[in-house]
DNA sequence: ACCTGAACACCGTTCAAGT
DNA sequence: ACCTGAACACCGTTCAAGT
């Protein structure tokens, strides 16, 4: 009648994330996760409703860390400096999580929960508010996030292959964004 | 000894694309494609090496059409007008191809061929060259593409859910980009 | 209350055999 | 030269049976 819990949801999320990062999303099979946490495949369904749900949980954990990373990069003193710091921390995080980053805004994986979405929007809005002013805060935040996400996802997908210096393109755009967001028109 | 070809690679690509657009990427099974083109599953492997290869072929066809769409939106007269036209054609195309667009810069699906990549870069470079000048052409093209791709992919993924007017954010960023790319510094 | 083995439906892919 | 049926390995998921 008793029962011994031999694994946990956190262990499954951690294992799944490790598998994706090491061998790619296709390698994330329920059996591979079960093996990694030391349980049989069918036992996983006590904790998650299925593979898709597990992927979403992994994505939400990664988002959480991304928000933390960009948040710590800000100091609230110089708006332009903070925008650079935000973008650079964003990009560095994506590079440190090459395989899981693409899950974050993946239409296929389904959207993350609104709560997570809202928390993740906070630091971006803070960064741009000082530059663009409150009336353009949301639009400016969307401009910055769209560019940063687009850039790193194209970069990670290998879409920048026509030569040139990718870092230079990053800096060029960063300068341009500061100019653009400082308009106050 | 003879042989009758009962289908074609183009028919398979078209069927696959239809399946993705109607029922999502997961619904693209080799059997579903075979059914759609009127052949048995095992026959598909005469024409494509596997499911992954078929997805890449679909992605390349979609990219080709995207390039054509943005190309036709340009008139070469007014640089700022062309940038707007480019971006709006880009976004409209993505909305018309909600399910297949996410394949384009998908790290998972693997990169499209360098040849396709080069052809697709041409119109963007043309658009920004007039504004940003030749020395910043590549960086400016990357800024514009990154933003446009990031914006529409986040939009399609349902990432813009914190209220506000998404169209307004699009226009705001478009204005900002024109400002930023016109610097000539 | 959690774990297990067995089972099911469904994949992608291969290949010998047909015409 | 292309098509087919059968087979293989491998999925995700369910569920009755164990402890």
Question: Helices and strands in order, then pairings?
Answer:
The structure is a homodimer of 185-residue chains.
Chain A: H1 9-23, H2 30-37, H3 51-73, H4 79-96, H5 114-132, H6 137-156, H7 166-181
The structure holds a DNA duplex (19 and 19 nucleotides).
Word description of this protein:
2 copies of one chain form a homodimer. Chain A is mostly helical. Chain A contains 7 helices and no strands. Chain A has helices spanning 9-23, 30-37, 51-73, 79-96, 114-132, 137-156, 166-181. In chain A, helix 1 (9-23) packs across helix 3 (51-73) and helix 4 packs parallel to helix 6 (137-156). The longest helix of chain A is centred in the middle third of the chain and has 23 residues, at 51-73. The mean pLDDT of chain A is 94. At the A-B interface, helix 5, helix 6 and helix 7 of A face helix 5, helix 6 and helix 7 of B. Chain A binds a DNA duplex (19 and 19 nucleotides) through loops.
Top keywords for this entry?
homodimer, 7 helices, mainly alpha, 185 residues, DNA-binding, elongated
What fraction of the residues of chain A are assigned to beta strands by DSSP?
under 5%
**If you average the pLDDT of chain A, what whole number results?**
94
Uncertain segments of chain A are none
Q: How many helices of chain A does DSSP assign?
A: 7
* Largest sheet entry of chain A: none
- Name the shape of chain A in a single word: elongated
SSE order of chain A, one letter for each helix or strand:
HHHHHHH
- In angstroms, what separates the terminal alpha carbons of chain A? 70 Å
- Helix percent band of chain A: 55-70%
Record field, number of beta strands of chain A: 0
SS class of chain A: mainly alpha
Greatest interface (CB-CB under 8 A), with counts per chain = A-B, 50 and 50 residues
From the alpha carbons, calculate the radius of gyration of chain A and give it in angstroms: 19 Å
Assembly category: homodimer
